[in-house]
Specification:
By secondary structure, the protein is of the alpha+beta class. It contains four helices and eight strands, in the order αββββαββααββ. It has a single domain, classed as Electron Transport, Fmn-binding Protein, Chain A (Pnp Oxidase, Chain A, Roll), CATH 2.30.110.10. InterPro entries: Pyridox_Oxase_N, Split_barrel_FMN-bd, Stress-Dev_Protein.
Amino acid sequence: MNREDFTKELQKILDDNNIGTMATVRDNKPMSRYMYFYNDGLTLYTYTRKGTYKVEDLEKNPNTHILLGYEEREGLGERYVEIEGKASLPEDVTPDIDEVMAKAGELYEKLKGEDDMQAIRIDIDEVRIMNDGGNAPEPVDL
């Protein structure tokens, strides 16, 4: 698959799937949890409460691994993406981030209103589309 087709397929998977796992590193061991993800193009966003282990983990080591998708397709297997990226913790929720994250609904608004919400931005370093028909899961650097 050429880079343009890959990017279109990746964009479709990101647009169509909001729930996935996010792994961080704590005490040199991986820690995974389910998260809601929102995307602006190929940049992912999620959120959590301030002071959580996720935030502490990412402050020490911004590397993260995300699994997103797993859509069942007849005869083609369950397609999903493996994402390696770097997370950052924006201090302020700018209007563009707020617009993307507002899709989260009531909990997002509640945390934002309580001033207890921490946005997490994930910039993708490398990604693989898994179980994509006959295509081998070659990593693509973004």
